[in-house]
Amino acid sequence: MHHDSMLAAIHSAAVLGVDAYAVTVEVDCAQGLPQWSVVGLAAGAVKESRERVSAALLNSGFAVPPRRITINLAPADIRKDGSGFDLPIALGVLVATGQLDSSAVTDLLLAGELGLDGSVRRVRGALPIARLASALGAHWLVVPPADAAEALLVGGVRVTAPSSLRELVDAVRAGMLRPATPGAVSDSLEPELDFADVVGQASARRAMEVAAAGSHGVLLSGPPGAGKTMLARRLPGILPPLSDAEALDVIAVHSVAGTLAGSALATVRRPFRAPHHTVSGAGLVGGGSTPRPGEVSLAHNGVLFLDELLEFPRHVLDLLRQPMEDGRVVIARAALSVAFPARFALVAATNPCPCGRIGDPGGACTCTTADVLRYRSRLSGPLADRIDMHVGVGAVPIEALATGLVAESSLSVRGRVSSARDRQRARYGKMHGIGCNAHVSGRWLDANSPVAADARSLLRTAAERLGLTARGYYRVLKVSRTIADLDQSDGIALSHVAEALRYRPAPPIVDRRANGP
What we know:
With 517 residues, the chain is of the alpha/beta class. The protein has two domains: 5-174, 2-Layer Sandwich (Ribosomal Protein S5, domain 2), CATH 3.30.230; 195-502, Rossmann fold. 37% of the residues lie in helices and 16% in strands. It has 22 helices and 18 strands. It has helices at 44-47, 49-59, 86-96, 126-136, 148-151, 165-174, 202-214, 228-233, 244-257, 262-266, 281-285, 295-298, 314-317, 321-326, 369-376, 381-386, 398-402, 410-427, 442-448, 453-466, 470-486, 494-502, and strands at 5-16, 19-30, 35-39, 68-74, 108-110, 113-114, 120-121, 140-142, 159-160, 218-221, 272-273, 286-287, 292-293, 303-306, 328-332, 337-341, 345-350, 389-392. The protein is elongated and about 85 Å long. It starts with a strand and ends in a 15-residue tail after the last helix.
């Protein structure tokens, strides 16, 4: 080589939140003591790319000349993390050392981790990166084979998925990139768990249908074994199928979190997340030094189920308030803030008292009133107020189980839920990001939904008698609107409000000894 230094610029991308942004990997190879430095706010995994990339280059039969190699990841003011820059760095080194012609790589956008043998391994966030490539009009998107199916979900982008560095370089030199082929996608929407399995519990089943129709939060309260978990697990099966846009949003979150299994792409179901009550705050709403989505975002467009709600630490539960209001989580860090989507249907389950037997005809409750009050106070008032529906789930008498009656299937319930959702979509068509009654502002609904006079006066009386907050009042109105939608009714009638009021939380308990047994 005649001159002292060569510079290569390779297109890549990094993920921030659930979106990707363009990153240019600049590689400078100069005369001088052999060393290798990475600049541009690179985190640990990126700095370690030196060992992976140099081994991969050598093991793929390329030369790594003893030069001073400087790698800059631009823009330099955003922190870069992850191992997805290995592939662009390797190509940059090949161009900067004259082993690959720079004109061959101008229309590529690359992301991939390299194994020491030169194999290309999967990265997080292939879907957001493909969305970016499509927006930028990059000619070819190069991703690991494990991520090809995900990248192909985005239209308007040509994807190639080489299994090794050598295969990619040979294809680039020959100008013969092989398009990746989409895998077979199956369209089975058969819910795995069916509502037909839930015997008895007519009122709880009805409540779940209303919750699904308007995407309302539900708190199921009842003795152990009454079927709370069984009901919750069957909720995704009665929600309408995901639209294409919703499915891509779900895949994007799981892609960034690294929780995407290959099979998950073939049938994108509504997520069902059930974190244990030992979950940390960051695990629930997201966080970490490189912010990752938490359970509320992994449940986006699906169901978040909190079993044994009152066993969760109160400070962890109170983190749910903001995502439940805004439908997204914003994680602020010193250098940047990241937003993750979090529109989920909350289903929580709890025993009515520490022993679980209060109000159970078959068992005597052994808790003192103080125990019960202390137990219930773990759910803060503001959070209880944000849960639209509170539903008692009684123990099912054994006779009911023995009758062998088959209850209605999830499929037919989902039909009613879907048509109620269609009415809501028509009503909120122009409003950005709102497709359900639970997400619309109560004031807007109050002004734009006809409420019968007797229904309104019942609503007012109940608000005074139950001491509803303004939020509580609007929550009842929203649930009434959903019940009206299930009835295919344009206006809200007395019966709709009456049913919605049944789902309000019971007023706080007073000492039981004071008012008789």
